[in-house]
Amino acid sequence: MNHKREKKISHSPHNSGILPAVYAVGDIQGCLDDLLRLLEKVKFNPSSDKIWFVGDLVNRGPKSLETLQFIRSLGDSAVSVLGNHDLHLLALTEGDKRYSSKFDTLLPILESEQRDELFHWLRHRPLLHHDKKLGYAMIHAGLPPQWSLKQAKRRAHELESVLRGDNYRDFLRNMYGNQPDRWSGKLEGVDRLRFITNCFTRLRFCSEDGTLDLKTKGKMGSQPEGDLPWFQVPNRKSEKHRIIFGHWSTLNIKTKNNAYPIDHGCLWGGKLTALQINCEPPKWHSVDCSESLVPF
Questions:
Q1: 274 by DSSP, 3-state: which?
Q2: For 42-53, how does the pLDDT look when each residue is reduced to its tens digit (9 = 90+)?
Q3: Considering only CA atoms, which of 189, 135, 124, 190 is closest in space to residue 157?
């Protein structure tokens, strides 16, 4: 796919003024055909452009295996952070059936000849991606108000080291659960890793003191009294940084408090969205999607 890249005025005599495009794309969840239509719309060129994926590459949509294969084939042109459905797939590889359901569409991956290669690749995806030059960070779900971006990077590296290490199976067997629900530097072991996981891959609402509400999944305004969307908590330490995230298809906002939610409900018959972030202001692109599951 070739395209005419956007011209940008440069103040540097060493820059021709033409830069490759960088796009961040919302939750795909196996909807590969919609992704390909979106990339065609923006004329994505993998030889020069970059694309960031906000996680939840797989599950519930019709082509989870093909989605993983395609994104992996993009090599260094793509960056993807891990989402809760991606971790769910990794847990299933270890025989954890507690959270499988009729909505899982992961069997083709589990039965694929490329299974081990894909799992190894997925385990080595980051939890947080930050491009200081562009001025954006990307996560799947949220950050607790106590963490600065620098601290969030450290917490992400803790979990990434475990997922990429020899004992990752032990973590996956103990990953699920809603406790502990508040950050403390004194947390250790599985409790510490579970809290980190829940923030990066499941968080929507929390209280002002950072207590996570991992049960409420609806729109803003549906939460219990005293809870707020994580990006609206007053004085959160990451508020000065632009953060792209997914996971929350019912938000129906484009940006607020330096947060950029880009899951626009493709799986539920909404839109698949790409946010171009190498220009000011950032540009929104989207395609209507064909899937029509009911959000829950």
A1: strand
A2: 999 999 999 999
A3: 124
In a domain, 277, yes or no: yes
CATH (domain of 64): 3.60.21.10
Contact 103, 72 (CB under 8 A): no
Q: CA–CA separation, 114 vs 105, rounded Å?
A: 16
Query: What pLDDT, in 10s, does the model give residues 213-263?
Result: 999 988 888 899 999 999 999 999 999 999 999 999 988 778 889 999 999
pLDDT at res. 101: 57
Length of the chain: 296
C-alpha distances in Å from residue 135, one per residue of 9, 163, 181, 241, 244:
18, 27, 30, 7, 11
Largest CA distance in the chain: 59
Question: 267-290, pLDDT tens digit by residue?
Answer: 888 999 999 999 999 999 999 987
CB 272 within 8 A of CB 31: yes
Residue 254 is predicted with a pLDDT of 82
Domain-located, residue 13: no
Residue 136 lies in a domain: yes
Q: Provide the b/e sequence for 163-172 (b: ≥16 CB within 10 Å).
A: beeeebeebb
User: How many other C-beta atoms can be found within 10 angstroms of the C-beta atom of residue 296?
Assistant: 7
Predicted local distance difference test score (pLDDT) of residue 178: 97
Is this model's pTM higher than 0.85 or not?
Answer: yes
Give every CB contact of residue 74 below 8 A, 6+ residues apart in sequence: 46, 51
Q: 181: which 2 tokens?
A: 């629900």
Which parts of 145-226 fold into alpha helices (H)? Answer: 149-163, 168-173, 189-202
Q: Residue 185's domain spans which residues?
A: 22-288
In a domain, residue 109? The reply is yes
Number of domains in the chain: 1
Other beta carbons within 10 angstroms of residue 240's beta carbon come to: 9
